[in-house]
Amino acid sequence: MRSPARCYDAIRAYLETLPLIDCHDHSSQAGPRPSDPIRAVIDWYMQSDLHSASSDGEIKIIFDSARPLEERWPVLERAWQRTRFTGYAQVVRRAMRRFYGEEELTLAALRRISEKMIDFSDERNYLSVLDQAGILVRLEDIGAAPDAARGKLKQPPRSRLIIGLPPYHAITSYEEVQANAAPLGLTVTSLDEYLEACRVLFTRCKEAGAVAFKDQSAYTRPLDYTNPTRAAAEEAFNWIMEDPRRRLSYPEGNRPLGDFLFHQFMRMARDLDLPVQIHTGHMAGIRNEITKTNAVHLTRLIELHRQTRFDLFHANWPYSGELLFLAKNYPNVAIDFCWANMVDPIYSQQMFAQAISSVPHAKIHGYGSDLPGDALICAWAHADLARDNMAIALANLVEMEYLNLDEAREIARGWLFENANQFFGLQLQPEGTTL
């Protein structure tokens, strides 16, 4: 993709020189070498588009690696031909071209790929792809908070820890409470003890290098957090503590307790000076209910916790206007384009441009791969696509004389590096950021 604007090539070339801060990823580990060429090039997200273009039965056939490749290919080919122009498909095609020299997804191409699949358990291969993508640091949501609390944190190269919040507020049973406190060697008997255990655990995570909290509860409940009383929360907590066989329903039965805990955790985030990343908008997979994930549901939470910084994910696709409003209206809100660049490239291009005219440009975080470690080549391709999206938006604004070329470069550096470096307190030095 490219813009017809005369300055496009200059801006795109400049973007290629800038390092990336990957604001959201899930690479707990990489490798071993894949055994299935289909899975080697088609990541989780492309699987969703293929599923949307086929059926439940056909998607099982496509990814059943026990079946011969020749048996699965006709089913895959039909689905691929129906969906090969989406943003996810853009990522797959770019990754195949870059790392396997294949221009099109064909049976012959898959056979050739099967002979040279990359082993990312070899750290040299892993780092090579990060270098090619220009990824300097990755913020990793890998469920590692318990290990960090125990002092046993192990992460892939260039990773910074993100503390996942849902396990700590979506509690429904005695066993879940005790499991959360177990890394501290504690047995919890009251709500006060549980809150203190969480505070200690989160503090240890920060001491181990955590740079943010992250919450993806939008997958399972609406984002409209209420502000219940402590008494209501304690009643629900005591009910499950009195009998280990009891379990709160989720999300409704947990809501007085879960919402109360969420507010408490926002205060802990404030005290620890850690931003809170929140999943908004589109969800992975298919057959999801989207209205519950609209970032506008967070308005009361954002309004109350004015000293807590919020990084709102996925450009809130498809609700761009609501997120632009929140970022414009609230000093403690930033927009994060993680995942969005491949969910919908055209949406991202348009929203990048609109964000410049409506939101302080320093509040935009332009890239997050949002992929597991076995999709590392797709992380490179996603970064390549994100640079295209930004270059198109910036070049069009220069062409219409809204910006000049130097201003476009300044914004680009902020989107890819400076804004996230400051927001997450990464303390990366400018002299070490040119590749």
UniProtKB/TrEMBL annotation:
Pfam families named among the record's database cross-references: Amidohydro_2
Amidohydrolase-related domain boundaries: 251-426
Gene3D superfamilies registered for this protein in UniProt: Metal-dependent hydrolases (3.20.20.140)
GO molecular function: hydrolase activity
Origin: domain of life: Bacteria
SUPFAM superfamilies, alphabetized: Metallo-dependent hydrolases
Protein name as annotated: Amidohydrolase-related domain-containing protein
Naturally occurring in which organism (per UniProt): Anaerolinea thermolimosa
Lineage, highest ranks first: Bacteria, Bacillati, Chloroflexota, Anaerolineae, Anaerolineales
